[in-house]
Structures are given as C-alpha cells and as structure tokens.
Amino acid sequence: MPAPPSPQTRNSNGLDQFFASIQGSSGLSILDLSGASQANITFITNLGHRLYSDDIVRSLDDAFGGGGDFYENQNDGARADAFLAQTLDFPEQSLDGALVWDTLQFLSGPLLQNAVDRLARILRPNAYLLAFFTSDEKSAQIPLYSYRIVDSRTLSLAARGQRRPAQFFNNRSIEKLFQKFSSVKFFLTRDSLREIIVRR
User: Which residue segments constitute the domains of the chain, with CATH numbers given?
Assistant: First the structure.
C-alpha cells in the first residue's frame, strides 16, 4: 500500500489577514472546522485565545453517508437540522472568528445556505471568517485537506483524499452565499485554492 503523500506547505494571505484582524486582542473564541490538531490548538492558545474544533467533513459523512447519494441525503430536513445542531451549536454572537477552510464545498442546497447563515449568527459583528474554494471548475473530484497552522501566514496541508464537490463556486456565487456578511475579499493564489476572507 503506497504511503500517503507528505504534507505540503503554502503561504496564505487569507490566514495572514485573519490573524492581523485579531492582533492585539486576547481571550477570543475561535472556531476551527478542520478537526482538532495539536498544531492549531497550540498556535491559537499561545496567542491567548480559546479554540473550538470540529471535523465538519467527518460529521458530514456520519450524518449523510452510509446509503443513498451523499448530497441528496443533505436535503433531508431532519438530518440537516441534526447536523447543524451538532456542529454549529453556539450562542448567537459568541465567536470572534472562524477557520472554515475548504469545508463549504461539500455542503449542498439548503444545508449550505443554512450553515452559512448559522455562522453569521454565531459570529460577533466585525469578526472574520476564512474559507477556501477550488478554482478548478473542470475537475469532477477535488482534493480534500486537513489544515495545520505553521505560523500566522503559513499552512501545512495534509491530503485526505479526493471527493466530488457539491458544486463549483465562482466569485459571484461566493458573494451571494455570504450576502448576510458585511464584506467578502478574494485573494489571488498560485494554485487551485481560492482564498476568501469574510467580515461579519
């Protein structure tokens, strides 16, 4: 069995701006949807903040996998409500930032918009959200990564395989998705990951 590929390191202007937005603050509450990792916990807590972690892709698989079409299953209202209650059950305006990474690419239909609307409710005004979307609209399968923070502008990406995205997101569809937020900023990158930073 071949060994998994080594993690790749990349600079991230979006991550740099995310941490610049909370520079000089302490005791903030940050959400990380890439799953608990010692690297991220250590980095965030060393800055004096609290980190809440959830592997939202694993939660998606638990909620909507195991029979039938993964994306069709997300249209089941009861299952979607249970998923949101499990992953984004925070009081309104209780979080000061969210590291969403590439996870929104694997939510479809009403669940996607409901998740983004839930994020809007649980983030405090002027809080920032960092998200990644693939810019390769021709690929039926896209890479899925675990994101580990090396420093305030550098990430280590560990491959978690390939999977089909729910849809292709262009700039206009991303802006529409985050229409309840006050601003959306796009960063140019040299690879197929489009970085965005969104201000509540």
Answer: 8-199 (3.40.50.150)
